[in-house]
Structure formats: structure tokens, C-alpha cells
Amino acid sequence: MIASAEFVKEAFVRFNAEIFSGQLPVPHIQLSRARSFLGKLKYKVTPGAFGRKTVCSDYTLIISTLYDLPQAELEDVVIHEMIHYLLMIRGIEDSSAHGPQFRSYMNAINERFGRNITVSHKGRAADTGRMHYVGICELNGVVKPVGASVDKVRKLQQEDMVGLIVCSKDMAPRLSAGVRKAFPVDKIDWYVTNHHYFSKFPHLRTVKMYLVPRTELPTLTGRNDLGGY
């Protein structure tokens, strides 16, 4: 089935009562033609003044209508975003978008309620979008994101992180060589894919990489070593 605003709101209200004990205020519901995600939680961030905490508000649950899914899978997408919502309103920090805190709630819900929520979805949109050259970098050390705190680095050390290069074919040779020099990388496995997961990453044109948990990556086939880059 393809999501409708009525279905998403009904699912939210039902699972809020059944799973989340009614803790979640009903957010705005929005449909999208995005191919880069199935579900997304959007919100407004207001920096706190005079040392006060940052405030998040105006939560919107967005579901893509490019995907035709079984009802149970579409419900799992809604619940997935509800977990993000719960962590946000409770102010629970995590080491990444789908770090240990998220996975703890996800696994508990799957076990107790017989759901099949995952950190990423393997489905494809009807319109699969552009091709990506994806380099998965095996790291031999911790890469510290710019501006990351000591606690953030410690959390990254607790997860199995990989570096991710997403680019065009023309940029792959230069980025591959540059990343090997700039970061603690043992090897880079290259793939050509149009999987929707990678559409959320802007194609790189400078030497850098995205850090993601290995378990978040979709299964890739059709490996292409691009001449040994």
C-alpha cells in the first residue's frame, strides 16, 4: 500500500497508545515524493539563550509516497520514526542516528510486539534515482568528526563505524587516493548502486568521508573495484 495522511495519523495514534503509553504528542503529518527516505522526523531547532538548552519544536512526521509496501512494513516505518520522536522529546542523547539507545528501544518493541523494525529499509522506490559510486572504507583507527567532543568520540569507539564515500564515477579515483592519505583507512571497497539509502548523502567533491555504523548500511551487490582505486 502507499501511505496516505489518514493512514499515517491513524497508525501514529494507535501505536502511541499501544506501544508508547500515549507519551507522544501528535505531530504534523506530511507526505513527500522523496526517494531518499521512507520516513523522516523533521523539527525546528531553537538555540537556547544565556546557557539554556536548545529547544526542539514543531515536529513533523514525513512519509514518502514513492514506496508501495505491505501494510505491516509501512507501520514499522511509522514506529521507527516514533522511536526517534521519543528520544527527542525525552532528551535522550545517542552516539548516532541509530545508535545504542535507538536500537535498545527498537529491539524491545520488536520482541514485545512482534514487529520487524529495522535501522534501514531494503526496499526501492519506483523511481530509483541516480547512480552512486560508493566507497566503503575499512578503518584502522577512530576518525574524529570536526568539533566532536571527547564523549562523542568515546561513543563512536563503541560502535563499528565505517567511512563512506558517495560520489560520481569521475571523482572516485581522486577521492579514493585522497581519503587513503588523509584518514586511517586499511582498504576501500567500491560499489555502483542506485539504492535509496545513499541518496541522502550529497556527492562528494572534496576529500572527506561520512561516518556511519556498519550495521546501518544496506546489503550491496555488484561490487565494482573501479580498477583498484
- Gyration radius (Cα, Å) is 19 Å
* Number of H- or I-type helical stretches: 5
Query: Outline, from the CA principal axes?
Result: globular
Give the low-confidence spans. none
The N- to C-terminal Cα distance equals 42 Å
Question: If you had to describe this structure to a student in words, what would you say it looks like?
Answer:
By secondary structure, the chain is α+β, with helices and mostly antiparallel strands. The protein folds into two domains: 5-113, Zincin-like, CATH 3.30.2010; 132-216, no CATH class. It contains five helices and seven strands; from the N terminus they run αβββααβαβαββ. The strands form two sheets. The chain has a four-stranded antiparallel sheet with strand order 6-4-5-7, with helices on one face. Strands 1-3-2 form a three-stranded mixed sheet.
Question: Which features would summarize this protein structure in a list?
Answer:
229 residues; alpha+beta; Zincin-like; four-stranded antiparallel beta sheet; three-stranded mixed beta sheet; 5 helices; 7 strands
List the helices and strands and how they pair.
Elements: H1 5-18, E1 28-32, E2 39-46, E3 55-64, H2 71-90, H3 100-113, E4 132-139, H4 150-157, E5 161-167, H5 172-182, E6 185-193, E7 210-213
Parallel strand pairs: 1-3
Antiparallel strand pairs: 2-3, 4-5, 4-6, 5-7
Helix pairs in contact: 1-2, 2-3
